[in-house]
Amino acid sequence: MRTCQKYNVVPVQQFIAMMDRDVVSLKHRGVGSVGGRAIFECLRENRHIQALDMEDNQLGLNVDVDSGHLEHISSALRENQVITHLDMSYNNLAARGCAAIAEALEDNSFIKELSLRGNNMGDTGAQALAASLAKSSKLTKLDLSDNGIGEVGGIALGALVAKPGPLKQADFSWNSVKKQGASAIAEGLKTSPLVRLNLAWNGLGDGGAAQVSGAIKENATLQFLDLSSNRVGLEGATSIADGLKENQTLRSLQINGNPIGDTGSMILIEAVGHNQSVRDLGLQDCYTYKSGAGLFDPMNPTGHYQLNLAVEFDVKVLERLRELDRMDEASGIDNFLNVTHNGKIVPFTEEDDVQAWAPPPHGMACFDYVSGKRVPKDARAQRDEVFQSLKRELANPALSEDHRLLMLRTSAITHYWNAQQVKQLVQLITYQRRVDAAIMLFRRTVDPPNFVDVVYGLLKPAERKSLRLRLGEAILPMLPAAERALDTEAELLRTRGMLPAPPAPPPAADGEAAVVFLTEDGGEAQASGDAPA
User: Fold this and answer.
1) Domain range for residue 528?
2) Pairing status of strand 252-254 against strand 280-282
């Protein structure tokens, strides 16, 4: 209060009321540079506040050149031995202000987490800050996002990333480090102790992605990497997939918002399938959705397909599924069900199946594919906090059903669920598409015996029938005998592309020959003896 009176500023009552607490948040309070001076003067002697959030308070030099000097902040940070978490985001500190804070941290070994997000530090500020932090900083988490940092600043950050030390998490997103900056950061990342790195929205392009790919081949600590919205195309996706094959530590890879297309998405999905360490792959807004295959996952291919045989990508998907079918002979089930071409059933015999089919060069091929691959014994259901987050995302009323199903398909690339979780996910889908969701998650359920009681039992009779005919022999043995008996032999045969055998004709009247003939649609009719055959 004395300091406020000295500098002729109105005291922030919220701050006064919280001075004896461990965590203080003063976001968006319009404190200003002079008010900030009063607050930081208090921090010289305060022994309670461990986390201080001063986001968006116009503390910096750009507000008032005469009174905005940051000596009071620097001095307070040098002397305070209690604060461990400091957020100074969006305060117009500019290059000089950020450098002053970094210099103060050379004498402070207590602050572990620092955010200078949105302070317009530019290359000059990034260079100064990196130089100071490289000397004696004890930071474990640093946020420099949205700061106008270019390639020169990116090179300085690369040196900071390379430095052995306590820094475990770095957020450099929403800058413009581009290829040269990415190259320096990637070089530093090869031996860096970082666990999390965010490089989203930095204009890396395919060249920058290739540099990062080389880094993750050698890095042995990184667990989270965000490369979203970096103009990475198919070439860059191929590079990243190549790097994933040699990485054993990465747990989450975010590629959202990059134009890698259907092919690039498939390449990354397959790389993740072989990697075995990645548990979360972000591909939102990466593929075109134009393909009838949607988001094809060879590790979880169970689902409904509508493929245009005149489209190269769709033809490749069909061939991949036929290859999976050949490899799945030991499962004892028919993988391809309900196969049609331009709306007409593609007929198969007991001896022939889809492998003997020569697909035409054009037209629409529609079918259900059911994988015989069981859930791995070591698969674990998604952690509850992650599951609840996914549920909140799917519950967004602004999402279309197609978008929800695509989100489920993307999540199913790396995650498994128990039957109760699958039930909750299916309930978020409208009645018309619930069967699609249930089928998609069928082979991602860690407790398959519970699928029938919990998920199948949720569905209405018409949905259950659709599920049975689309999953076929994969689910029939799990069902009670009464449920299995609901489908006629003709219906079950048609799922495999086989026409039911015609029933025996009724006995003909004396002197009259009974003639049974097949109609064009595969049905049957009977004519009297004098009717044309």
Assistant:
1) 502-533
2) parallel
Distance CA 207, CA 115 (A): 29
Is 338 within a domain?
Answer: no
Rounded Cα distance between 154 and 180, Å, is 8
Instruction: Judge if 97 and 190 occupy the same domain.
Output: no
CA distance 525 to 178: 72
Residue with tokens 């290859």: 323
Q: Which of 81, 80, 78 is nearest to 104 (CA)?
A: 78
Q: How far apart are CA 5 and CA 272, in angstroms?
A: 61
Is residue 419 a contact partner of residue 478, using CB atoms and an 8 Å limit?
Answer: no
| DSSP secondary structure of 380-420 | -BPPHHHHHHHHHHHT-TTS-HHHHHHHHHHHTTT-BB-HH
- Rounded Cα–Cα distance for residues 211 and 208 (Å): 5
Are 6 and 138 in a shared domain?
yes
Amino acid (one-letter) located at 309: L
Tokens (6 digits) for 494: 């048609």
Q: How far is CA 315 from its chain centroid?
A: 26
Dihedral (Cα; 281, 287, 291, 292), 10-degree rounding: 40
For residue 497, being part of any structural domain is answered with no
What φ, ψ does residue 169 adopt, rounded to 5°? -130, 130
Query: Looking at the structure, do residues 87 and 186 belong to the same domain, yes or no?
Result: no
- pLDDT tens per residue, range 446-498: 999 999 999 999 999 999 999 999 999 999 999 999 999 999 989 988 998 88
DSSP characters for 479-514?
S-HHHHTTS-HHHHHHHTT-PPPPPPPPPPPTT---
Residue 333 vs residues 235, 371, 475, 476: alpha-carbon distances, Å: 38, 9, 10, 11
445 sits in the region (left: phi over 0; alpha: psi -120 to 50; else beta) called beta
CA–CA distance from 359 to each of 315, 317, 322, 354, 440 (Å)?
Answer: 9, 13, 11, 9, 25
Q: Are residues 95 and 186 both part of a single domain?
A: no
Do 129 and 163 share a structural domain? no
At 461 the pLDDT is 95
Pairing of strands 169-171, 196-198: parallel
Pick the range with the lowest mean pLDDT from 1-15, 319-333, 419-433.
Answer: 1-15
